[in-house]
Amino acid sequence: MKWAALGLVAVGGVIGLAVAGATTTVVEKTGTNEFCLACHEMSWPQETYTQQAHYKNASGVRAPCITCHVDSHPWTDYLWGKATAGAKDVWGHFTGKLSTREEYDARREEMSEQVWAYLERTDSETCRTCHDEAAMALEKQSQAAQFAHPQAQAANLTCISCHKGIGHGPVGDQTSAEASHRPANEMADLADGLTDVLGSEK
């Protein structure tokens, strides 16, 4: 009886490890850009993504789609985020909501607004997966950035408040500042200061 119980525990342990390994592999494989691009709708945002700094930059560090679109901490949030985002994308694919480039372009601003609202609401949590304000070496940044970051923190702005075009470029004719949802006077004060700094750099 004792050996039978031990055998069951051993078999259960092996099965558990196999399930955990399979789950980890599935989660990893379904989090790649290649997997996202399996649906043709993703080829259009891919075009703008490859033109931005998160795709190609001086340091050679690339942020894949999932890093910006799904919060990775804690693990439970990551799994839930992947599941809900994936279900939404699959539903959109099979219902043909974005079956043409024209439909994508027509809804791009609306979809961007949804992502920006999420990042505003969560204090840009996915940005902070890689970026840490406390680790910023301001002295190594441009004069404009050295001025803007402390001012933005003092004004309670979050990353996406000023960096709306960082992932896929500006939407339509909007710039990051013009598209901001923050009070106009906060952005105006910041813009005035930036204008002075940028003017001094010329």
TrEMBL record:
Q: Where is the NapC/NirT cytochrome c N-terminal domain?
A: 2-169
Write down the superkingdom of origin: Bacteria
Q: Which residues bind heme 2?
A: 65, 68-69, 168
What's any one GO cellular component for it? plasma membrane
What molecular function terms (GO) are annotated for this protein?
electron transfer activity; heme binding; metal ion binding
The cross-references to Pfam families, in alphabetical order and at most eight, read: Cytochrom_NNT
Record's subcellular location: Cell membrane
Q: Which residues bind a menaquinol?
A: 82, 89
The entry's comment on post-translational modification says: Binds 4 heme groups per subunit.
GO BP of this protein: anaerobic respiration; denitrification pathway
Q: Which family does it belong to?
A: Belongs to the NapC/NirT/NrfH family.
UniProt protein name: Cytochrome c-type protein
